[in-house]
Write a sequence for this structure.
């Protein structure tokens, strides 16, 4: 049973956000990280040094591995930031300031 | 405004909530400052309100305890909850305290709350020791998987392995299985024979043993392979984890050659215990013993006016946090109204505290990472996830450059100098350097924008409880991280004072309480977890 059904969720209407221009569906109340997980995405950053993929690690705002660019602002912790209708989420390359 | 004495509670987990209720019912005005949108901390992290969960308890444990806390809070007339506040500093002035918090989620503005006393109930976070492949997407902390599940009602994949050591692994594996994930194996490094040898002591808390047995039964029903005295040797994959290799441990804690098995999975939830957030206490000058904040029988730190409760004074679970928080709240209420408290008033909570601490100490001796975990850490394994420092670089710093402690390794390699300020890699660096992990002495509890810092030094007018907003922050991000020479366009970081040496600013989450529970044979929840019942209150 999926977790939404398990908890008897009756979420508000879904809305659309984009990840690197691709539309994905989001539920109100979820964070950016939860939205991306639900869309089957587990990495949305490449490291500054080796360019390795990263996503959620600690899930509670401590590790900063899940940094992402949302609406042009880089270095936001995806596990803390609530998703909003129309958000433009972008994979963050390196520091997020190079592009 | 109120004429009542004012208490600021940092962290709205079990400890902070129990303290708030105990204090406010005895005439104290409480300002409850917490980083999350809703109270509960990690243990009682609940589905986001907009998800409309009709059965929020389905993924929780000890829900009736939560209901008591929630109802108490609803009835309290003098608790002001300030959500989405990430506390970065508590300043002690001549006759009061000022709590400085960044407003989330942007964290570009800061707010101040004045109080006559402060309770630090900042909880903890999970410790994870490195192994090859641990930075791959899909490898998450056990508590992180649980936190995302509890709040976002979401899981990272279809097939998971849960691994490491500690009472948290049981509820995490059970929760993932209940949420529809196929849990291929629960890999625990602890040796069941050690539990058998301490059966008598474990029986002191029969409820916890029964709880552990209940989790185990549910895992067996879900056909989860239980693999005690095993460890994950490596995670494999290119863009995300695709499989893990697990192996048996011998009596000395070394991997037994020839026992390696590859298990396909798209998720590895891993954890090796919990660490306390001690940063705010350290910056206030509170005594820290080992990795926990010292507190006396009333939960007072050695700094007048500062109390501490829950994981920050030693990881022990939500039930222990509730007991400590309750005692702290009563002590604070008495002290702020000029009375010497009578410990007989909280004798039941003190008794719970004593038993739960003893139990927690026992579990700490049973749930231990494999003794030779560093053997599995190849030289090319990234240890500092932020600064991408490898085990080989750390070993070179130790063997060839003479580094004998975490701070020197940091100076030589940058390990621990990034965004997380060493929270994730410190235990590993200490293990590789062959030294004890010591408090990191972070000056700021989390990354703070430069503009906010600049204003923090100005004369402030902070009114009691009415938080003052400082718009200091330009989008200037400042991370706790140190700039690396090569990063070109990085924003100017202000490390909170972090001199490139040690300290740095870090976030501490006031996620108030962590999970924990009280472990019992149990699961202790870490982030959020489950267990625990609380007496205390």
């Amino acid at each position: 049973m999926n977790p939404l059904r398990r908890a008897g969720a009756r979420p508000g209407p879904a809305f659309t956000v984009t990840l690197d221009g691709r539309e994905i569906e989001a539920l109100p109340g979820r964070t950016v990280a939860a939205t991306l997980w639900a869309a089957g995405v587990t990495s949305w950053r490449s490291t500054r040094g080796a360019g390795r993929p990263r996503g959620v690690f600690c899930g509670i705002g401590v590790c900063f591995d899940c940094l992402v660019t949302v609406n042009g602002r880089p270095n936001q912790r995806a596990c803390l930031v609530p998703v909003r209708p129309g958000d433009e989420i972008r994979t963050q390359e390196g520091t997020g300031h190079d592009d | 405004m109120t004429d009542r004495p004012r208490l600021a509670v940092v962290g709205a987990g079990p400890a902070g909530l129990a303290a708030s209720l105990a204090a406010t019912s005895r005439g104290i005005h409480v300002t409850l400052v917490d980083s999350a949108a809703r109270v509960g901390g990690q243990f009682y992290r609940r589905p986001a309100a907009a998800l409309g969960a009709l059965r929020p308890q389905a993924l929780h444990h000890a829900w009736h305890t939560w209901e008591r806390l929630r109802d108490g809070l609803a009835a309290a007339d003098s608790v002001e909850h300030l959500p989405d506040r990430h506390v970065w500093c508590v300043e002690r002035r001549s006759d009061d305290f000022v709590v400085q918090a960044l407003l989330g989620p942007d964290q570009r503005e800061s707010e101040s709350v004045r109080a006559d006393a402060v309770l630090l109930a900042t909880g903890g976070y999970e410790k994870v020791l490195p192994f090859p492949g641990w930075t791959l997407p899909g490898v998450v902390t056990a508590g992180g998987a649980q936190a995302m599940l509890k709040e976002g009602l979401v899981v990272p994949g279809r097939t998971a392995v849960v691994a490491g050591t500690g009472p948290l692994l049981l509820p995490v594996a059970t929760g993932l299985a209940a949420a529809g994930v196929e849990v291929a194996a629960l890999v625990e490094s602890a040796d069941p024979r050690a539990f058998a040898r301490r059966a008598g002591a474990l029986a002191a808390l029969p409820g916890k043993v029964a709880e552990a047995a209940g989790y185990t039964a549910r895992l067996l029903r879900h056909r989860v392979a239980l693999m005690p005295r095993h460890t994950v040797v490596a995670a494999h994959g290119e863009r995300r984890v695709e499989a893990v290799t697990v192996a048996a441990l011998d009596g000395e804690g070394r991997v037994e050659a020839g026992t390696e098995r590859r298990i396909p999975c798209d998720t590895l939830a891993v954890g090796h215990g919990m660490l306390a957030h001690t940063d705010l206490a350290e910056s206030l000058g509170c005594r820290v013993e080992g990795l926990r904040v010292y507190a006396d029988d009333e939960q007072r730190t050695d700094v007048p006016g500062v109390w501490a409760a829950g994981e920050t004074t030693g990881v022990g679970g939500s039930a222990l946090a509730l007991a400590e928080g309750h005692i702290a709240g009563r002590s604070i209420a008495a002290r702020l109204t000029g009375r010497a408290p009578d410990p007989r008033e909280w004798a039941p909570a003190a008794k719970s505290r004593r038993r739960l601490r003893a139990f927690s100490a026992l579990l700490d001796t049973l749930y231990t990472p494999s003794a030779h975990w560093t053997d599995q850490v190849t030289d090319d394994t990234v240890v500092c996830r932020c600064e991408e420092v490898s085990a080989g670089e750390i070993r070179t710093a130790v063997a060839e450059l003479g580094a004998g402690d975490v701070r020197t390794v940091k100076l030589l390699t940058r390990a621990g100098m990034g965004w997380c300020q060493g929270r994730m890699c410190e235990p590993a660096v200490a293990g590789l350097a062959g030294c004890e992990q010591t408090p990191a002495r972070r000056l700021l509890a989390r990354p703070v924008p430069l503009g906010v810092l600049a204003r923090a030094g100005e004369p402030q007018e902070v009114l009691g409880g009415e938080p003052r907003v400082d718009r200091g922050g330009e989008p200037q991000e400042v991370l706790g991280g140190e700039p690396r020479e090569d990063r070109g366009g990085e924003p100017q970081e202000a490390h909170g004072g972090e001199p490139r040496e040690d300290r740095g600013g870090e976030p501490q989450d006031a996620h108030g309480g962590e999970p924990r529970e009280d472990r019992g044979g149990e699961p202790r929840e870490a982030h959020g977890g489950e267990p625990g019942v609380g007496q205390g209150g």
